[in-house]
């Protein structure tokens, strides 16, 4: 089963935009995500509707992160994406009259609702500014390590592997 990485992808894009000094095109952002620009534009639509990003067309156009972006929480972003399910378990629904299935499904739904409520609370406590600060600290540590270890392999962001 393929996992939905949409939430992670959006965070990735927003943090790139936060560091950018000029608008970034869909093509540039899609390249960082190894995806198609059309997929990226669809992904960004909810964020634009929520006022988290803006986009401009033509020469010099592209995506910009909204002022005050640092205060945006991961929960805010989750909401802007349409609040997709954070916890997913399959249920046997083929025999709804089955008492065993009813008890199992009720128990699983309750556990999923509790887990999702807890996760949403935690997402509300993490801001984009916090993530950006962690990236900055990681980059500084990486640059320091790079000067003392010259033969490191880096990914497309310059992070060590």
Automatic annotation (TrEMBL):
Example of a GO cellular component annotation carried by this entry: cytosol
Pfam families reported in the protein's UniProt record: Rrf2
SUPFAM superfamilies in the record: Winged helix' DNA-binding domain
Top-rank taxon, per record: Bacteria
InterPro entries to which the protein is assigned, alphabetical: Tscrpt_reg_Rrf2 (IPR000944), WH-like_DNA-bd_sf (IPR036388), WH_DNA-bd_sf (IPR036390)
MF-aspect GO terms: DNA-binding transcription factor activity
Alphabetical list of PROSITE patterns matching this protein: HTH_RRF2_2
Name the record gives this protein: Rrf2 family transcriptional regulator
Organism: Comamonas piscis
